[in-house]
Amino acid sequence: MLRLGIKSLLAHKVRFALTASTIIIGVAFVVAAFVTADSLRSGFDELAEDINTGTDYTVRGELSFGDITEAVAPAVPADLVDDIAAVEGVEIAAGGLFVDGVIPVDGNGEAVTTFGPPTAGSNWLEDESLSQFYLIDGRWPVGVGEFAIDVTTYGDDSYDFELGGTYLVVTPTGPREFTLTGTAQFGFPENAGVGAIFSLFDTPTAQEVLGYPGEFNQIAARAEAGADIDEVRSRIEAVLPDGVEVITADDAVEEFSDATETFIGPFQTILLVFAFIVLFVSTFIISNTFNIVLGQRVRELSLLRAVGATPQQVRRSVLTESAIIGVVASVVGLGLGMLGALGLKALFNTLGASLPEGSLPLTLRTVAWAVVVGVGFTVVASLVPAIKASRITPVAGLAEGAGSDEGASLGWKRLASGGLLLAIGLVLTGLGLFADFDGATPQLSTLGAGAAITFVAVSILSPLVARSVVSLLARPLAWIMPISGRLARANAARNPRRTSATAVALTIGLALVTMVSIVGQSLKVSFVDRFASAINADFVVSVNTQAGLPKTLSSDIRAAGIGTPVGFDFDLVQIEIDGDNSQPATTVIETTLTAARISDLDAVVNLDVSQGSLEGFDPGTGLLIHSDVAADEGLAPGDSVDLTFVSGDRVTATVAATFEGTAFWSNWIIDSALYEQVATSAFDDIVLVRAAIDDPEAARAAIDGVMADYPQAQLEDRQEFQDSVESNLNTVLVLVNVFLGFALLIALVGIVNTLTLSVFERIREIGLLRAVGMTRRQMRRMIRWEAAAVALYGAVVGVVLGGMFGIATAVAIPDDIIDTVSIPAAQLVIFLVVSVVFGLIAALFPAFRASRMNVLDAIADE
Amino acid sequence: MSVAAPPTHAAAQAVAATKIYGSGDTAVRALDAIDVSFEQGRFTAIMGPSGSGKSTLMHCMAGLDRVTDGQVLIGETDLSSLSERDLTLLRRDNVGFVFQAYNLIPTLNAIENIMLPMDLAGSKGDTAWIDEVVGATGLGDRLKHRPSELSGGQQQRVAVARALAGKPQVIFADEPTGNVDLNTGAEILGFIRNAVDEMGQTVVMVTHDAVAASFADRVVFLVDGKIVDELADPTPERIRAHMNQLGA
Ligand SMILES: Nc1ncnc2c1ncn2[C@@H]1O[C@H](COP(=O)(O)OP(=O)(O)OP(=O)(O)O)[C@@H](O)[C@H]1O
Ligand SMILES: [Mg+2]
Fold first, then answer.
1. Domains in chain B: how many in total?
2. Which atom of ligand 1 lies nearest, measured to the CA of B57?
3. Which residue ranges make up each domain of chain A?
4. Which of A495, A644, A841, B25 is deepest in the core (most CB within 10 A)?
């Protein structure tokens, strides 16, 4: 029986190559996800090891909550360095600074920016091994007028830097000119710079320009050779003041990989999600292919049964066949996935992230996943066809019309099981959207399972309606092209099960795309509405980097008298709310706090105060809360809460008013004056400006003048800002849809596959049509439009389904993100048109095959 | 070898038509320089032992296949000079064909199947003529039925009607009664005979059955790809006698 499976595979190479290709793409996705993520992990781990070589301890201010990836460690006094150096067993200690938001400006006046990695300022250390930097060219900078930059930026052709040249560097204390004396590498020369940009100074200069006079934000220390690392650590701990901690190199390495994992992990997960979507869709295609092929082999299988093959043997031969396809697909997918990983890394690098070089690590885990997923999905997909095949009776082959599953039973059983599954799927989806979950993972899993079950249910129910819906959708065909169109329509509707199974892949792909489009569109519309009603400012100043805009920018604009600027600074905060009678326990919330100058807020935003008032707001204690949050937490004007900052500082604030307006600020707002008491943030995240000059051109020119000192900042008017936020959103949506496009690609393969098999099955009919005078062109047209009709059917179901999911999701997303549900009708129509085109393209090969079929072969007796 | 096409009022004609399948050792000479002419308005039967080349002759003459050597003419048109596309159009407009089975498109109903060649051509055809042909099938209210809902005999009558509907120069039928019982066969043959007599059609039919062949005006005997004999105004007995003589 095994030989039979292999023989059958070899006899239908093209068909099985197509079937396998769907699984190959899925496996490739899985492999690319793991390999790229592993490659990043190993690269960053290596970097973490390298920068910590020679450093046994790092001493730094302790965060009271949160972790180091989200917040800046509080500073420590510089004289702590000597205390640590004096600890018995410590060989050497040196103070270091690492401050984000330091931006060099190249010879052409262009500010160096990144897409996310820090643009940091730091100091180099005398002790090379303690230092995190390695000098590549030139010499280390000395004194107030000199700096070095990282070698990646220096070598980047899009920037113009020369050793010995003088360049502007924007620092937290303002822009200054420095002479470039050298280039350096973070970690070791062979490490990539992780995309971060560094400006390096000597220690006193760094303290001065980075705004840490007499302070450091990390102290590196090394134990004497042979000393007990943990013992020395305890001794260091003993000399540390409160709020300062010491971690070992191992801790630091772990912390670094945890930090990198915060973006590698989600990246891997997202790719795996797409992989599973692709594999899920493939399952339908494979199942359908097996069904058709086995249908065509009824005579052969029933003969086998007649000569003594047991049902188990028949089943086993089918499963063996699918397992072989699975193995082959896994192996090919593994190779393709490695290529994909290479491509992904290249893509990231062209986007500006200089990733660690490193090999592409193919771990046992990745290989195991590839095989399990490849074989697993294929075998599962062939289970139902295999069982069906084993039920073929020895006399089945004698029946008239054996081999075609046209007019297969579409009874109550189907309706009942499909309906039940649909109900389960919809309930799960509803739960996923609207129920309360602790954590995103269980919520998304519920949602995903709900969606998957719904799709399976739809695929079961679809044959019940396929015939009438396809006939209806394809009716115009019969008018446009009398005979080819009529036959295309009839062929698309003749086998509802096959049509449904073929279309379901497209349905799933398009449902997802539609859902994303509706959520995206609603997001955009909600944003625009909210933006329009909540923001009064004429101009918005923003910056690409994480660090933000120096607070001096806003004071400079104010000083120039050209308008009212309000800087918004976001920070992590812990809020303690005392219980009341109904709920005695104290609640602690960790959230984002916004600090801004409340007295000027009216000039740039419309907060839409609902309770209390901004009149007589006390900048030293006042707090504003979004009314929904206030209601949730049972807070009203006059109530007090305790705020704890990452530095550990605590203040008590009193609710002055609640507001309804939302845009980019958070639900908790305090005045900058209060914030300055507890935090030393030199950066605003965004600055809004209400111009004092009426003429917009003149106002822009005036602000531009002030911004000359801040080359990294970008100035946009209201509309431009709104447009750029929208276009960022569009980019994300397009990216998501590109990945979902792979599901559509699978659907395309599915159509090609089914149609090729159908053409083969209808060989006699095709021969007859040709014999009575159908031209090749008419033949091709007939097949193409059959495919288009099937595709349109799948697309319509997909758009309807995706529309429902999309609307439900948009409704489920909290009002402060989406409050208006909007349906991009034009886009949905385009999806339908594109699907039809997809069908037409998918039919190219089968149509060609059909038109080339030898008339005589086709009409010859069996 | 080139033979000048003789002036004729033959509906279809083969001149030194030779068909060789395969090459070298395995080559089969299915038609061996056959000269035959089918006159307009006549019903010809072709008989011969299995493998003698009957189907091959039908296929080559109907433009479904090409001869290896020699000429095939439908009316004045030399098929060997036609492109694949023109050959298709010729089949559509000038040739009718009836096979032993599977003559109909399962997704089209009876009347749609009859209209198929006209629909493919995008023409209405001769409506009065079509009405006559359709009426002659005796299908009546079953015309809107799908082939699967018709009996074998009804299906074959629909197939003959389709062949007739476009008023082709000639109709080729390869064992049209091979798959049906005697009564049904007689019914179909009567229908064909009628088309020749009343409508002036030209029909060429392959059959193994002497009774079926006796419906024709003339019987041509084929052996090993050659025409060995022919018989005018045949009766079943004379046909059987000839067959025995040929040793088939
Ligand atoms: N496609 C082909 N390739 C090779 N040989 C063929 C092919 N078609 C027919 N032949 C051979 O050509 C010869 C004539 O075949 P043909 O089908 O014309 O016979 P026939 O007279 O119709 O027989 P039957 O009465 O059994 O239908 C036979 O020897 C057959 O084996
Ligand atoms: Mg034959």
1. 1
2. 18
3. 53-249, 466-534+720-862, 546-711
4. A495
